[in-house]
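> forwarded from #structure-qc
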């Protein structure tokens, strides 16, 4: 029997997601189906797929899959998009809390932009002149010159598939400070296995490395798909009260046969 589902498409600074209201738990969590829905030629096309489900203790639960069809760790832009989706579904009015794979998140919608509280970060590992940290997903951060012209796919793919990271995978961020208050970040994403237009946990990781040791609590972040802002308080290598802010929009909705 053919199974037709309703879906919504969201994007947050060009990081795009198929969004499904799965409060009735009817969506088949099958790797091949999810990969096909995310395929840009044979499906809807997206960097990932997100299910909104019920949760006993918070407003909703976020379940995130990369475009390769595998369930993955936290997605910052996806988190901002599911907040916009929950608002669209009338699940909350101005502030919300939800549960994701990395724990509890708070969020609010301010003048149309979504502010998402990320988990605390207590460790930044230095690897030669590069950095590794987990902002809900694992990230490698490398500062480069002329990031606009940088070979992100080639170098990101090489680092992600190096012996250290091959099995678990890692997201690779190339970062250039463009002023005292702004960085430009380009990211090669694990599970998409390509550069995306924006990666929220990657932007957060890059911002924390940039802010480390500076007497600053916020940084503007330029990505290929637009602009984000990260706020954080620091104490040595520990960061808390971390917020990721930026646009999250519904692009279209439709029905598709699985
Ligand atoms: N696009 C994301 C990150 C999604 C998870 C990542 N691909 C992984 O598997 O770690 C974001 O906005 O944070």
């Amino acid at each position: 029997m053919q199974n037709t589902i309703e879906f919504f498409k969201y994007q947050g600074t060009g990081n795009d997601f198929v969004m499904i209201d799965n409060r009735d738990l009817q969506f088949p969590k099958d790797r091949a189906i999810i990969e096909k829905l995310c395929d840009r030629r044979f499906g809807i096309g997206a960097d990932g797929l997100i299910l909104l489900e019920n949760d006993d203790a918070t407003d909703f639960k976020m379940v995130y899959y990369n475009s390769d069809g595998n369930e993955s760790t936290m997605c910052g832009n996806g988190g901002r998009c599911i907040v916009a989706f929950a608002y669209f579904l009338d699940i909350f009015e101005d502030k919300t809390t939800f549960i994701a794979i990395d724990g509890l998140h708070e969020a609010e919608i301010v003048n149309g932009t979504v502010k998402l509280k990320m988990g605390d970060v207590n460790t930044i590992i230095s690897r030669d002149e590069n950095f590794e940290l987990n902002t809900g997903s694992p990230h490698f951060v490398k500062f480069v010159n002329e990031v606009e012209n940088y070979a992100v796919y080639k170098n990101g793919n090489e680092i992600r598939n190096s012996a250290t990271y091959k099995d678990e995978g890692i997201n690779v961020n190339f970062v250039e400070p463009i002023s005292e208050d702004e960085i430009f970040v380009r990211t090669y994403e694990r599970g998409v296995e390509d550069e995306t237009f924006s990666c929220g946990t990657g932007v957060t990781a890059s911002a924390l490395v940039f802010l480390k040791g500076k007497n600053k609590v916020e940084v503007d972040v330029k990505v290929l798909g637009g602009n984000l802002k990260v706020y954080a308080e620091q104490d040595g290598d520990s960061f808390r009260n971390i917020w990721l802010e930026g646009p999250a929009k519904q692009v279209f909705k439709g029905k598709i046969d699985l």
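QC bot note: The first strand starts at residue 4 and ends at 12. The longest helix spans residues 76-88.
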